[in-house]
Design brief:
Elements (H helix, E strand, L loop, with lengths): L17 H19 L3 H6 L3 H36 L1
Pfam family, one: DUF2530
Keywords: Membrane, Transmembrane, Transmembrane helix
Organism: Streptomyces roseolus
Length: 85
């Protein structure tokens, strides 16, 4: 088990425009879905329809991610405001 014991402390998490990053990725998934829909027959002929549905699932999960990250950021701001004042 000593093999899995970390030798260094974990680095601090990176901070950045999380909501913007998640939103951009979500938009990209939906754009990929919309681009593939007109070619659905081509994908179906080759048993590759999972590509289309993967893009739709990525967009849907991205919407959940945007909702989660916005709520998380709001909770962090409320917590910091409560601590400082």
């Amino acid at each position: 088990m000593a093999k899995w014991t970390p030798k260094h402390e974990a680095p601090e998490p990176l901070e950045g425009p999380v909501v913007g990053t998640i939103t951009g990725g979500t938009i990209l998934w939906f754009v990929l879905f919309l681009v593939q829909v007109p070619f659905y027959g081509w994908f179906a002929d080759r048993d590759l329809t999972w590509w289309v549905w993967t893009c739709l699932a990525g967009g849907g999960l991205g919407l959940i991610g945007v909702w989660y990250v916005r709520r998380r950021d709001a909770a962090i701001k409320r917590h910091r405001a409560a601590q400082s004042g």
